[in-house]
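look at this fold:
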Amino acid sequence: MSKGHNVLEVHADAWTGPGGPQDVFAREDPDWPLPRIVSGDDIYLYDQAGNRYIDVSSGPVASNLGHNNRRVIETIKHQAETLCFAQSRVARTNENMELAEKLALTAGDGYERAFFVSGGSEAIDTAVKFSRQWAFANGEKDRKKVISFMPSYHGGLISTIGFGGDEVPLEVFDGMMQVSEKIPAPMSYRPPDGLTPEQNEDRIIGLFQETVDRVGPEKVLAFMYEPVGGVATGCNVLSNRFLKAIRQICTTHGILMIADEVMAGAGRTGKFLAASHTPDGMPDLIVLAKGIGAGYTPLGIMLAPAAMVDRLAKMLGYPYGHTAAANPLSCAIGTAALEETLERDLIGNAERMGQYLTDRLWALAEESPVIGDVRGRGLLLATEVVANRETKERFPADVVAPDMIRRLGFNHGLTIYGRRTNNGKFGDWIMTSPPLIITAEQIDEMVERFGATLKDFADEAVRAGAKVA
């Protein structure tokens, strides 16, 4: 069944009292109120009227285990009764040590040390500060510059917005942050100037070398990238040949590579580390978040080599942290989530169901005039929507496709993560990245409902003045 929800009827009341939900801070849109979610189970969410929604995007690509996972919930109960807090600067905890060991064994050689914080933005901030502390301790005090992609996303802190590639927040917070050097992301769907994707990669490799030379190799601290992108690039995938060339340049000049796997890590791409898909371009540092806490706790992690961490500890050390760093409750939840992921072969399921979902979405594209591309790895997938499939024409500025699809999805029993980035300059897409526990039957239902949503969207876009061909 593809219909049956009417969010506008159920949730038409605006919030007028004191307090209010978090969304009162967002741009007001009284014509499209949000459902009030009261419970969740498996891949489903339920509102106060009893409507059921498929969690198409795992929240913001975080709920890897789905909702109401009993193992994690029992762990929360047990840990809450045992130890909720011990500050990591004055005490060690079993929970911290257990998760660090399991992560190191799962991640493999070169990532033996784990630094725990409260989320992805903090973990990116940590990776850059750690890189700077490492350079400073080794007498390379001029290394301060970071190179990253346009477009990209690396967090919402003042210290991390500048590393990302989205012109909107870069303009809003201009002058309040250090902005990284930007090179074009090798977007596979619309390479410029008639180039093939491989030719475009070679062009950008050359631009990376030119940027290093222009800034000065001795001044470049790190190159930051997403092995498989998130909402900023619509799950654009970096190839092994591309990262191999970047790795060679970074190694030659002593530049650290920081892989942002906030979305891509923890098994979502069909490997525990997304970087493992590109073995010739392995990074120095890896940042995990979202799926590593699986939506059950705020948790972010920087993985680093023991050789770097232990040597730095003998020099300046890394004395920076946060109040909730290595919080025992979060660490215990992280361990339970990791054990569930490994013991239930959810990484393998991400690979298998990711291929099945990709095939189903491409089959849907044969029926839908607005699907231009489906890309990603495993269950980190995005569906790009276009006004014209043949020309890859984007929707006009006043047709904000991600918002419209997200809102129309409510009426078909879907919760969808999508937002326009860079004002649609690089395209519009929806994160079709469900929990790693999803089955083929559930994918069939999801794609049916998604197809009905896109049909409504195409009709709505035409009414708004777009030409859909």
Notes: The chain has two domains: 7-68+346-463, 70-343. The domain at 7-68+346-463 is CATH 3.90.1150.10 (Aspartate Aminotransferase, domain 1). The chain has a mean pLDDT of 94. The longest strand covers residues 371-377.
